[in-house]
Amino acid sequence: MNVTADQTKPENTMTQGTAPSLPFEHGFAGRKVLVTGHTGFTGGWLALWLTQLGAEVTGLGLDPITTPNLFSRAKIGGEVHSVIGDIRDAALTRDIVAQAAPTVIFHLAAQPLVSRAFEDPLETFATNVMGTANVLEAARSTPSVRAVVCVTTDKVYADQAWHWGYRENDALGGKDPYSASKACTELVAASYRATLAARGNGVRIATARGGNIIGGGDWSDNRIVPDFVRAAGTNEPLVIRNPAAVRPWQHVLALVHGYLMLADRLLASDADANWNFGPQNDEAKPVATLLDTLQKHWRQIPIEQTPGAFPETHFLHLDSTKARQLLGWQPPIRFDDTVRLTVDWYRREADGADPRALTLEQIAFYREGLRKQLPALAQ
Question: Which fold has domain 6-210+251-278+316-333?
Answer without folding.
Answer: Rossmann fold (3.40.50)
